Amino acid sequence: MASFPEETVARLLARCPIARLALLDASGAPRQLPVVFAPAEGALWSPVDGKPKRGPGLARLRRIERHPQVSLLLDEYAPDWSRLWWLELRGRAEVVRADGETDPRIAAAAAALRAKYPQYASTPLFLGAPTLLRIVVESARGWTAAPGLPLGEP
Q1: Are 13 and 151 in contact (CB under 8 A)?
Q2: Contact present, 142 and 1 (Cβ < 8 Å)
Q3: CA quadruple 147, 150, 152, 154: dihedral sign
Q4: What is the pLDDT of residue 18?
Q5: Which of 10, 19, 62, 151 can bridge 72 by disulfide, Cβ–Cβ 3.0-4.6 Å?
Q6: Contact at 8 Å (CB) between 43 and 112?
């Protein structure tokens, strides 16, 4: 199992547009969903944004409030299998709700998300009052097909 240097992990977090969030449902069964995210204030942040949703009460928020242990998977597939890699980040998540973006943590997370995703120029960053997932990474592990693979480069 590869142990990626911190600078490689930071580069991947800045570059990767999507991660798969794994969490547990009410019965303890694993669930996964794709999420956008950005690092800020010593954590990873994922917003409940203005993209269309199924309904007002998001299951992911209830699941995290019941079972805060989560995993994020970042990976890259390429037809050239010598360029494959994956990175799993495990940690604790919490749902952060705010009245606005005046809280310094919320402001920093919002700025990082807007900088990473130009789509937020036309899609609202928040669906109503700011609600985000804050994930504090506790461990990381990964794999790369080729030693010395320049992870994080296009």
Answers
A1: no
A2: yes
A3: negative
A4: 96
A5: 19
A6: no
Gap between the Cα atoms of 151 and 12, Å rounded: 7
Residue at 91 is within a domain? yes
Classify residue 149: in a domain, yes or no.
Answer: no
Q: Does residue 153 sit within a domain? A: no
Residue 1 lies in a domain: no
Q: What's the residue count for the chain?
A: 154
For 61-89, b where at least 16 C-beta lie within 10 A, e where not — what string?
A: eebbeeebebbbbbbbeeeeeebebebbb
Give all strands of the β-sheet with 38-40 in edge-to-edge order: 30-35, 19-24, 69-76, 85-97, 131-144, 43-47, 38-40
For the chain (154 residues), the mean pLDDT of every run of 10, in chain order, is 77 92 92 96 93 74 94 92 91 92 91 96 90 95 76 48
pTM (two decimals): 0.90
